Amino acid sequence: MAFPRHRLRRLRQQEPLRRLVRETWLTASDFIYPMFVTTGKSRKDEIASMPGQYRFSVDLAVKEAAEAKRLGIPAVILFGVPDSKDEKGTGAYDPAGIVPQAVRALKEQVPDLLVITDVCIDEYTSHGHCGLVKDGRILNDETLDCLTAMARVHAEAGADMVAPSDMMDGRVLAIRNELDRGGFTELPIMAYAAKFASCFYAPFRDAAQSSPKFGDRQSYQMDPANVREALREIRSDIQEGADIVMVKPALPYLDIIAAARANTTVPIAAYQVSGEYSMIKAAAHAGWLDESRAMLESLLAIKRAGADMMLTYFAKDAARLLNS
Which residues are catalytic, by number? Predict the structure, then answer.
């Protein structure tokens, strides 16, 4: 049998040729940079489980966000780390709370940067759950009032987009209705639509000081075994008014991203979560991986699977490499 006429290696011989036939490209404009904001001034607290990541006071968060903007990163997403918490997470929807403060400062000082806010009360509750609790049970419908109030407060502070991450049923519709009643009909919602009950969130919970004080989050976050249910969640959030849907985590759930891409035309976000980030950092520190290559390859895989945008703690580092 004659050797195949088509030798696929022909198009791999030189870098310029490889670039010409490359199917998927990363750019800094693909990234959303997650940032933790906290109280105080000139405060930059290192997060031990996430090397290179910090909890910033508002004044330093502005500087950090401005640097991200200079690198070509179009958006940040804010997570609040308050000084005090209570059973109802009232700090989450306090107009004078840490996230509204940060939103106002960013919109004033970095006006061209897209500011997205996470909408969930877990960082503000003393029990660490994403919903109100009664007799050890996470309440769904009662929590919606907290989430709508939180989204309204963020919108009034000047947020460009809100991103509910709680996984309560019906929260996208409730938030859409509240925003519309408040005159924020143009404000988009990026819904954490398929958010799985994953062990890869552990460093984030350290960063946000939001680990549950009892039980776990499996009654509201998704079973990692389920694909069809993820598609149902995505369809439901779109029907309720989500403008962008998210899959979280990203790399262990590339099949979910690909399935979502095949089943919907709305933009898809994927969150390269803290555990994904910290694993690469740890392996690179041990000398087991090339950090830059592992970072870019993992982000490329997420985009190749079908994500239109990626939330990643590597945003600044990746942007620097891609811009060089």
Answer: 195, 248
